[in-house]
Amino acid sequence: MAILTLTRAWTRLEEQTTIHVILPNEIQSDRKLQVLWLLHGLGDNGSGFIRKTNLEVLTKYTNLAIITPEMNRSFYMNLHNGLPYWDYLTKQVTPEMRKLLPLSSDRQDNFVGGTSMGGFGALKLAFTHPEWFSAVMPMSPVVDLSELPAMMPDAQGILERIAPEHYLETLAEKSPSEQLRQLRFFYCIGDQDELKPTNDRFVQYMRNDLKLPIAYHTGAGGHDWLYWQRMLPEMLTWLLKVNLADGQPLES
Prior knowledge:
Layout: E1 2-10, E2 15-23, E3 34-39, H1 48-51, H2 55-58, E4 64-69, H3 85-100, E5 110-115, H4 117-128, E6 135-139, H5 148-151, H6 156-159, H7 167-174, H8 177-180, E7 184-190, H9 196-208, E8 214-219, H10 225-240
């Protein structure tokens, strides 16, 4: 595997920031790479998945590129009186990384996931651009933005210009239902996570109201890297349908 750290000036942010990339050693000239856009949580940055998990080892036998942009404490929003992180992610990071690297733009080859704040970002991306992805993997996501003031002292910069009540539900209901139902969902949260009650309700809403096929995984675990590290192999096996030890397809 190859690990790249790309630091450059981005015109949308008018500052330099960093994107972390994992690439397979074998890159075929006639085949673009499948891409997992992996979004970090509050208080972390894009390096967290590399420093705090064995993600590099887990993807050894896959043809998968992993892109982890740094999004600060933005909650994947254009901040009120702040930087336009959502525009940066959707209008600059995605097309620019495809120019720089041999990444597939086919929706069947693009997946999005994330932890906590990044799980919220993954759901927001999927509901806003369901035509971009074929699979969505929120891990312990924040799904109720009215909980933000208790989580972060600077929440007002996010909440100033949005209505926090049912934010994700509103996005989902505006999304083309046919495209939404083409998405696969791997959704997980630990039983000891304080966010589990709101996630239980949100998954029920996705299943009952949106009629989406959700693979909802629960079990022992908190809101931390010990839980997310444990779930990564299960998530990647589900996503790629291969044995991570040798890259061979799973038996049907």
